[in-house]
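idk why but the lab printer keeps eating my pages so im just putting this in chat instead. protein + zinc ion:
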Amino acid sequence: MSFTSIKLEHKQQVLHELRNIKQQFADRNWFPGTSGNLSMRVGDFTADQFHFAITASGKDKSVHTAEDFLFVDQSGAPAETTDLKPSAETLIHCEIYRLTGCGAVFHVHTIFNNLISEWFGENGAVPAQGIELIKAFNIWDENAEISIPILPNFAHIPSIAELVENVLDPAVPGILLRNHGIYAWGKNAFEAKKHLEAFEFIFEYLYRSLLLNKSNSN
Ligand SMILES: CSCCC(=O)C(=O)COP(=O)(O)O
Ligand SMILES: [Zn+2]
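predcted complex ->
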């Protein structure tokens, strides 16, 4: 499906939804120092051709302007003529869409996701077991255990993007970049937000249990 054949109302609806999510995350201080990026797919999906709206790079994501988002194609190139630059991390979004066919990808830097990704960094994954919010990933087993992948935080984004395929687990809709932040996705913005919130709950839970265990052993 070409970008021009996607209905204008659909594109506007997606921008409206992204703007709302951006506001909600900004209110939680989830975009410190211009960090973070958000995207939502528009139109039909094939692994070879798709389009999505994404935050422009380097903006203060706690303020709203007419230049907050632009549309890009499956390679991360702008789909329309614009002076705006897509997020520096667009290629990671491209790869997540290509591999999952999802509808939205949200990336935030928080203290808890940074500390936990660094703590478990050498293991390449964060183990989480028996935490109620695992059910937000539609995993309902009692005492369920998941493993949240961690990729190295290379400065060269294409080198990170090419590793996504090796670690992506269809049952776990998120990937951490070590000491950087998390990417969470879902079939739509509602689900991507639910997943992101569940991951952040799990990271805070793990951080606090590590501290509790440490103080108990002293
Ligand atoms: C200022 S944090 C470093 C860049 C980053 O990790 C990020 O999430 C924001 O980059 P963008 O190009 O999307 O603004
Ligand atoms: Zn980032």
